[in-house]
Amino acid sequence: TNPRILRLDGDGLEMRDFLYAEDAARLVVHIARQPAEEPVIVNGGNGRGISVGEVARHLIKATGNGGITEIQFSGIRRKGDPVNLVADVDRLRRMGFRSEFAFDSGIGELVRWGQSIGDRKVA
């Protein structure tokens, strides 16, 4: 495998909705505090789609490999993978929940965390 090439399935135009882990935890607490007679069912997300290609570009930039790593898409979508998967968060918003992490800052935090794990030495 060539570390200068990131190979991904699909065409990169597939849309996904990402929710940072701290926002997901806040969401669980927020829902748990809601008075309810029965279980509360909501879509967990931020309601904003971002293309897989854009995610890959952000990830490469956050790792400091911008201009070094090339992204290649196979053009083949896996069976059952939806083209667009973005949460309808209208109910969450009516319940007063908003995600706090923007995608850029969340991906930066994820990369920093991953790099800190890689920097640790196993005894």
Overview of the structural elements:
This protein has 123 residues and is α/β, with parallel strands linked by helices. Helix content is 37%, strand content 13%. The chain contains 4 helices and 5 strands. The strands form 2 sheets. The chain has a 3-stranded mixed sheet with strand order 3-2-5. It has a two-stranded parallel sheet with strand order 1-4. It starts with a strand and ends with a helix.
How would you sum up this structure in a few lines?
The protein is an alpha/beta fold. The chain is built from four helices and five strands; from the N terminus they run ββαβαββαα. It has helices at residues 21-32, 52-62, 90-94, 103-119; strands spanning 5-8, 15-17, 49-51, 70-73, 84-85.
SSE order, one letter for each helix or strand: EEHEHEEHH
Mean pLDDT: 90
Between the first and last Cα atoms, what is the distance in angstroms? Answer: 29 Å
The portion of residues assigned to helices is 25-40%
Biggest sheet, in brief?
Answer: 3 strands, mixed
Q: Tally the helices.
A: 4
So what's the oligomer here? single chain
Overall 3D shape = globular
What is the number of E strands?
A: 5
**Weakly predicted, low-confidence segments:** none
> Structural class, from secondary structure content?
alpha/beta
Strand percent estimate: 5-15%
Q: Widest sheet: strand order?
A: 3-2-5
Measured on Cα atoms, how large is the radius of gyration? 17 Å
